[in-house]
Amino acid sequence: MAASFRWILQLHRDVPKAARFYSEGLDFTTNVCTLRWAELQSGSLKLALMHSQLEQVTQKGYSSLLSFTVTDINSTVTKLIALGAELDGPIKYEVHGKVAAMRCLDGHVLGLYEPV
């Protein structure tokens, strides 16, 4: 039997703040949230957040990149900025749709895509 995918794990210094970011900014469902662990879900994708005190977690480099298809990139960017994210360059208007990169909590980066 082949292995089955369980979840993607990100390390964060403030797990509840990170869980709120994904829940309110991208409408993830929060299955579990404690000070040290959270599990969120969007469809069949599960995102696990684990507490870490390591300084590498708060780096300004590209720690992880998660890409999401959204229905309205402008409102999603606005929500994420209100929750502490920053645009990593301008929203680009490509022939296939709009794309944006958001630098988020603890150095993680989100790619957003709104198809035409």
UniProtKB/TrEMBL annotation:
<dbReference type="Pfam" id="PF00903">
    <property type="entry name" value="Glyoxalase"/>
</dbReference>
<dbReference type="InterPro" id="IPR052164">
    <property type="entry name" value="Anthracycline_SecMetBiosynth"/>
</dbReference>
<dbReference type="InterPro" id="IPR029068">
    <property type="entry name" value="Glyas_Bleomycin-R_OHBP_Dase"/>
</dbReference>
<dbReference type="InterPro" id="IPR004360">
    <property type="entry name" value="Glyas_Fos-R_dOase_dom"/>
</dbReference>
<feature type="domain" description="Glyoxalase/fosfomycin resistance/dioxygenase">
    <location>
        <begin position="8"/>
        <end position="102"/>
    </location>
</feature>
<protein>
    <recommendedName>
        <fullName>Glyoxalase/fosfomycin resistance/dioxygenase domain-containing protein</fullName>
    </recommendedName>
</protein>
